[in-house]
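Title: Prediction job returns without error message
Component: structure pipeline
Severity: low
Priority: P3
Assignee: unassigned

Description:
Job completed but the reporter wants confirmation the result is attached to the right record. Sequence as submitted:
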Amino acid sequence: MRYKLFGRSGLRVSELALGTMTFGEDWGWGAPKEEARKLFDAYAEAGGNFIDTANNYTGGTSERLVGEFIASDRQHFVVATKYTLSTRSGDPNFSGNHRKNMLQALEASLRRLNTDYVDIYWLHAWDFLTPLDEILRAFDDLVRQGKVLYIGISDTPAWIVSMANMLADLRGWTRFTGLQIRYSLVDRAAERDLLPMAQALGLAVTPWGILGSGVLTGKYNAGREGVQGRAANWQIAEQALNIAREVGAIAEAIGASPSQVAIAWLRQQRGLIIPLLGARKLEQLKDNLGALNVQLEPTHLARLEAVSRIDLGFPHDFLASGEIRNIVYGGTRDQIDWQQP
């Protein structure tokens, strides 16, 4: 395991993060405490130090287990948790992005994690109600108090994230250093705006859903029968199954598992990509960690690009057309040396 800087910061995080939404059986499908401990130990023994949880994962059990597992060496681990999602049904102030929910959620998370600070605090999902300056100032207060070291934002439109960091820079507040998004070979929508924005702003990207709710493991390649869990909500399209079959073919050719190929593809994309591994069983996590030893050749990347390519839509496709490029650059684009940030 090697390390990467977490966005525009000096924080060193391992090149694969451990997602702990599976820690606990409260939702009916997670890992019991004994198995969760094995997952945590295997990840740590592989050199991993970046643990990602949230205040609502398995009703708080995930945070409690993470707190117990890190207790013997708290300072070693980079612990990230989140706020936003509801923790008390029917009460409007126990959810959302506002200052009240942020503060009460953090205090509850600190108690469950049995720590006095978190390394990274994520806004979990945009609520479209709370003023942006309220959120940023509240985050900045927590950083100045030492309860939070860095902040990140998850599942939020690109224009909001970019405006937030501009506002933070102008007012001298703490800026977002990380972006958490859904991204995989079967869901490349983030390439339209979120990923280019992250590259331009120097944000670390921690993608979730990296195996497409299991689609990319190949277990549904024979068809949609038996689809369950999150994947059942995807209404798996034939295109996704075609992608999974190509992943499987490449995996067989290079002696890797389909999951390892899917994760390796993510790791070889542009930008600062730190995939979130999520597993319920030890053998699944060990297989995923094996992606560290998989390097896809250009021919493999080309095959995966061909089968999973998406239309970027307007204005991207419009601006990339030959006619528009010609009049924008006066026919001189190929004569201009330019390096993207």
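Comment from assignee: result matches the submitted record. The mean pLDDT is 95.
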